[in-house]
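Technical annex, item 7. During the second reporting period the consortium partners agreed on a shared format for inverse folding records so that results from different sites could be compared directly. Each record opens with the tokenized structure and is followed by the designed sequence. A conforming record, contributed by the partner at site C, is shown below for reference.
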């Protein structure tokens, strides 16, 4: 049976429009780090490179190679960890040019360093790109987190963050860092801004 994250991992990817406390385990990711406005072409190029690698892994059996412990699955959604430069934090209004980000796509547990090297070879032959050399393959554990579904424009996320912070205060939780994670459930190319669905997540600890 095909592993579909929307159905099999709802606790991590499908929260409701209210804060919830969840313990996120270790996951493997393809990642690229960057700085600047996400509306620029460089960001779009980075997203494309991540998906090229993710689909290279996903499609290996159809291209004649089946990795050990492979199972059929739906490619995971794009995610991002977002923060601001020190200069950006000191500005009264949000300056998107001061964003620091790590964008990523989760990989199944069967993916190894050797498999990543094979996927890199495939992509470099079929769709070479200089950003491939900036790809990081790493395991991340968010651990105890508060997350919530945000519907609408990214520019309105502050409203959802306020609700999440209030939840933390009422439940004796401290947000560990100003950086936050976003998980993009919608196809930005096909979805109207007011209908965009994004999971927002803070890593927290109990007081």
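Designed sequence (site C submission):
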């Amino acid at each position: 049976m095909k592993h579909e994250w929307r159905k099999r991992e709802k606790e991590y990817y499908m929260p409701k429009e209210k804060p919830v406390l969840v313990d996120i385990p270790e996951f493997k990711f393809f990642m690229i780090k960057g700085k600047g406005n996400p509306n620029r072409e460089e960001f779009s190029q980075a997203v494309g490179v991540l998906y090229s690698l993710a689909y290279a892994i996903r499609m290996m059996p159809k291209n004649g190679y089946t990795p050990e412990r492979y199972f059929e699955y739906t490619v995971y959604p794009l995610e991002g960890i977002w923060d601001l430069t020190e200069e950006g934090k000191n500005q009264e209004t949000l300056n998107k040019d001061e964003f620091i980000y790590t964008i990523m796509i989760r990989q199944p547990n069967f993916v190894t360093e050797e498999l990543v090297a094979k996927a890199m070879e495939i992509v470099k032959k079929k769709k070479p790109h200089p950003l491939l050399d900036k790809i990081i393959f790493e395991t991340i554990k968010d651990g105890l987190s508060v997350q919530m579904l945000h519907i609408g424009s990214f520019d309105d996320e502050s409203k959802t963050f306020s609700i999440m912070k209030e939840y933390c205060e009422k439940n004796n939780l401290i947000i560990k860092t100003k950086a936050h994670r976003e998980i993009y459930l919608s196809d930005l190319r096909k979805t109207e801004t007011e209908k965009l669905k994004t999971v927002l997540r803070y890593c927290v600890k109990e007081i």
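The chain has a mean pLDDT of 96. Residues 41-58 form the longest helix (18 residues). All partners now use this format for quarterly exchanges.
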